Sequence to fold (122 residues):
Amino acid sequence: MDKTGAAGMQPTQQMLLNQMRQTARLASAGAAGAFPAIVPANNAFAGEHNVAFSRVLDHAINQVDALQHSAGAKQTAIDMGQSDDLAGAMIESQKASVAFSAMMQVRNKLNSALDEVMNTPL
Fold:
């Protein structure tokens, strides 16, 4: 019985530990091709090899806009008496608010990065 079996590890924990050890060995061996490529969330740009930054930014802005329109539609339905799903409307409103706040933080970071590049002496 090995050390982990003696410690009372579950088989799933043992499997996870073995995967972590294998990943560590690959990383220390410098096998960069052994890891899968990082893809955007929900495969928004699946199949495309050259993804332009402007397309990613436009896609993110369109998603935030869609969330805001969805929240507005649910709030309007509540106001008109067509729906009584107040909790759903509030959740949609909060999703839109969080998405908009995140987008504004990205915008501020991009602006500060551009200012820093513009102020770099040549």
Summary: The mean pLDDT is 82. The chain is about 70% helix and 0% strand. Residues 44-118 form one domain.
